[in-house]
Write a structure and sequence with these properties.
Blueprint (H helix, E strand, L loop, with lengths): L8 E6 L19 E2 L2 E2 H11 L4 E6 L4 H6 L4 H10 L2 H10 L4 E6 L6 H6 L2 H4 L4 E4 L3 E3 L5 H12 L2 E7 L9 E7 L6 E8 L10 E9 L2 H8 L10 H9 L8 E5 L4 E3 L3 H13 L5 H12 L5
Parallel strand pairs: 1-4, 1-6, 4-5, 8-12
Antiparallel strand pairs: 2-3, 6-11, 7-13, 8-11, 9-10, 10-12
Helix pairs in contact: 3-4, 8-9, 10-11
Length: 300
């Protein structure tokens, strides 16, 4: 694998307004909503770091300064914890600022996911890169991103993450029409359909928020007109690449069967917090006991 085909950089779009969580997100980015004791965005950065990605560009917007502050050093807090001998918390605080080199760029006009990715062109350059959406948290025990990077290196195209969902729920997602690749665990994507009705969906494979993209996507995004909602859709650009032969052509899918936590709406967010907390060594057992009591109507 040569250096050009090694994924070293990731783009994390984080410019959304988070309107579904108002009023909590009136002055705080939705990416900073806590999932137990870490903001959601930190789980995403940790995932990239585990996959060996050490250069991250966050595409931000207004009221996102706290993202930068979170991944920065805070000498006063660190010194206070060190003086108290609270070394576990000291390590937790320091770890966020040592995960990767993180850069920040304003999106400017809110023109959709495709536009946010396009804003990363100058930083990424002419090499494959990952895109991670903060609404999807992938369990740290699963190696989805690493698998996707390996498929990108093998195929030379772009790779998306797919997950089987209930056919009745497919209208909430982008959906993939795929063909199996003989002898391989990944699939070839023939077509992407954005939020189809259940009876028009080509499969029950939903696109989730992980991508490993060939830099050819930038050229396509530059030529992609606004689509649904007046936004530049990444799905439209991937559709073009799926039909292209040669350098940067082809889109492939990795079907993920691991643990994914959706923080995209209130109920899913609460489920994610409870699920992750219940699996924690420090509080999981007590929480599970309380949940049993609560559902039986006997909790305090």
């Amino acid at each position: 694998m040569n250096a050009r085909n090694t994924v070293r950089k990731a783009v994390i779009p984080a410019a959304g307004l988070g309107t579904r969580f108002l009023p909590a997100t009136k002055a705080m980015p939705k990416e900073m909503l806590p999932v137990v004791d870490k903001p959601a965005i930190q789980y995403v950065v940790e995932e990239a770091a585990r996959a060996g990605i050490n250069d991250i560009l966050m595409i931000t917007g207004r009221n996102k300064r706290s993202l930068e502050d979170h991944f920065d050093r805070v000498p006063f807090i660190e010194q206070t914890l060190e003086d108290k001998g609270d070394l576990d918390k000291l390590e937790a605080v320091r770890s966020a600022s040592s995960l990767a080199d993180i850069h920040y760029l304003r999106q400017g006009d809110p023109k959709g996911l495709g536009h946010a990715v396009l804003r990363g062109q100058q930083h990424v350059g002419d090499e494959p890169f990952a895109v991670l959406l903060g609404d999807d948290l992938i369990d740290e025990r699963d190696s989805l991103l690493t698998e996707m990077m390996a498929v990108q290196a093998r195929t030379g195209g772009s790779v998306i993450a797919l997950m089987e969902v209930d056919p009745e729920q497919i209208s909430a997602y982008g959906c993939a029409d795929i063909t199996a690749v003989e002898g391989s665990e990944y699939v070839k994507v023939n077509q992407l359909v954005e939020k189809p009705s259940a009876d028009e969906a080509p499969s029950n494979l939903a696109v989730i928020g992980r991508y490993v993209l060939h830099p050819a996507v930038f050229e396509v995004l530059e030529q992609t007109p606004p689509g649904r909602g007046g936004e530049i859709q990444l799905t439209d650009a991937l559709q073009t690449l799926a039909a292209r032969d040669g350098e940067g052509g082809g889109v492939y899918g990795v079907v993920f069967r691991g643990r994914r936590y959706d923080t995209g709406d209130k109920l899913s967010y609460l489920k994610a917090v409870v699920t992750i907390a219940s699996e924690r060594e420090d509080i999981g057992e007590q929480l599970r006991m309380w949940l049993k009591e609560f559902t039986n109507g006997s909790a305090d």
